[in-house]
Amino acid sequence: MKRTERKQLKENELASGLNRFTRWIRQHTKKIRIAALGLVAVLVLLVGIKYLLDYQKGREASYLSEVLALKADLEEKPENLAKLESLSQKKRYERMASLALATYYLEKNDLDRAEQILVKVKDKGRDLTHYQILDLYAQIQIKKGSYDQAIEIYRQIEKEKPGVYPLDVVLFRLAEAYEKQGDKEQAQNVYRDLQANYQHTHYGYLASMKLMNLETSK
């Protein structure tokens, strides 16, 4: 077959393919339009969701900054306590303001007041603030001698394995709860877990020190 004939044949095949594609496009124009509109709608929805999430994060950061500023100046400005109390009654500030208030009362060793504040918010949400509240609530239980309740809380957090909250902190406080309860065997088991799995962290190092003290005190 001559070169010109082969070239003509390829051109005919290309033209035929284009014609078939054009006919297919015409036959399915409606479906293609619907699919394109659907894709545009999905993209608009995704952009809208991202915008809302960014907006929500911005608002939460603003609320947190306001609460932390009030907490930081409490010693110099006692009137901030009333402001925090007021914010804790507002839904958007409720958990953050309650956490700040409970921390303040814990520092003042008013365990009952700190506990009362956290009881109202400790089962709300599943974000960083939620686990901070649970951790503080468990610390209060330890200080009050309610070790079983603190252990239950820390075991539940351990089971949930929240990505937003450091598990080594939870395990260290769990081990301390066992230790203060007098269950040295369980305390050592948790400290060993920390030593093995979090050896390069601050709490992994502290767990090693705790283990040494427990073993030498036998």
List keywords for this structure.
218 residues; Serine Threonine Protein Phosphatase 5, Tetratricopeptide repeat; 2 domains; 10 helices
Model description:
This protein is mainly alpha-helical. The chain folds into two domains: 1-121, no CATH class; 134-218, Alpha Horseshoe (Serine Threonine Protein Phosphatase 5, Tetratricopeptide repeat), CATH 1.25.40. It has helices spanning 3-27, 29-72, 80-87, 94-107, 111-119, 128-143, 147-160, 167-181, 184-197, 202-216. The model is unreliable at 40-58 (pLDDT under 50).
Briefly summarize what is shown:
This protein is mainly α.
Biggest sheet architecture: none
**Domains counted in the coordinates: how many?**
2
Helix-residue proportion: over 70%
Segments where pLDDT lies below 50 for 5+ residues?
40-58
Shape: flat
Tell me the total number of β-strands.
0
The fraction of residues assigned to DSSP E strands is under 5%
- Continuous helix count: 10
- Please state the average pLDDT score: 80
- The SSE string, one letter per element, is HHHHHHHHHH
Structural class: mainly alpha
Radius of gyration: 31 Å
User: Between the first and last Cα atoms, what is the distance in angstroms?
Assistant: 98 Å
